[in-house]
Amino acid sequence: MTENSEQDYQFRHKNIFGIEQLSVADISHILATARSFREISGRPIKKVPTLRGKTIVNLFFEPSTRTRLSFEIAAKRMSADTFNIAASTSSATKGETLVDTAKNIEAMSPDVIIVRHSSSGAPQLLAKHINAAVINAGDGAHEHPSQGLLDMMTVMEHKGHLAGLKIAIVGDIAHSRVAISDIIGFTKMGANVSVAGPQTFMPSHISLLGAKVCSSVKEAVSGADVVMALRIQLERQNDSLIPSLREYSQFFGINRKLLELAKEDVIVMHPGPVNRGVELSPDVADGGKSVILDQVANGVAVRMALLYLVLGGNKGGDGQGEIR
User: Fold this and answer.
1) Tens digits of per-residue pLDDT, 1-40?
2) From CA 211, how far away is CA 217, in angstroms rounded?
3) Which listed residue (55, 67, 101, 154) is catalytic?
4) Known catalytic membership, residue 154
5) Catalytic residue chosen out of the listed positions 68, 77, 144, 303
6) Which of 103, 133, 138, 161 is nearest to 19 (CA)?
7) Which end of the chain is more exposed for a tag (fewer CB within 10 A), N or C?
């Protein structure tokens, strides 16, 4: 953006359903806001009053460690009140519908509902029935926008830019909402995305998102600036789509020898949780090229930025004051 367009820019999204809805200017603004929040996590007292008086509800219908905790930490670092609802302890187990659950939560006046659900489109459905802002924390195989944004932030930190980079994404593309958000986001920002994996893990429409489908992992990784391995999502498969994990590791696992085909300064990413010895060899997962823990750290900053912006945070502010 030019200096004038930056001055005129305003973030106008009340809800975050996916990277697809965001423009290049939106993504750049979210990442810049996240960078400004990153230093708060390094302070002796990790708290600012920005969202004091706001109520954030984590409504998770699928298991989650990193994403749920990351959103909760992000909200608390900005002094919001947070509440966690898991499907196993909600009235969903008694037959209550998702919309009725949301309407009952809405009656208690939350400001933001963060939702994870096994069905694609669940966040959009909620947003039609409630006044609170809705942030998608992963819906089916559709999108996982905050993960896509933290992945872009991590690459920016290490490479300084996104345009022109070769991003290789390897693994279970078909069941990965992270892959979809990453492909949409990285290509929007001018990077070149190559994907590889077993044929049974490769959706037919993936090239329509702008990704290059490679015939082998070697082709995808060759000359790559970034190599991202994806977890095999067995919980989303009705039948096993690979002969065995051992065979998958042999042909599609990322190991040190395979990384020699990438650029010397390649970075290795994984959205987690990592199945060591399957998607990544242990020496690569823990090696000097791995930035997996940087992804986790940046997740808090990105989620602070999203909460701040959907609640009306203004461009140019330092994020240290309160949103009224």
Assistant:
1) 655 566 678 999 999 999 999 999 999 999 999 999 999 9
2) 14
3) 67
4) no
5) 144
6) 138
7) C
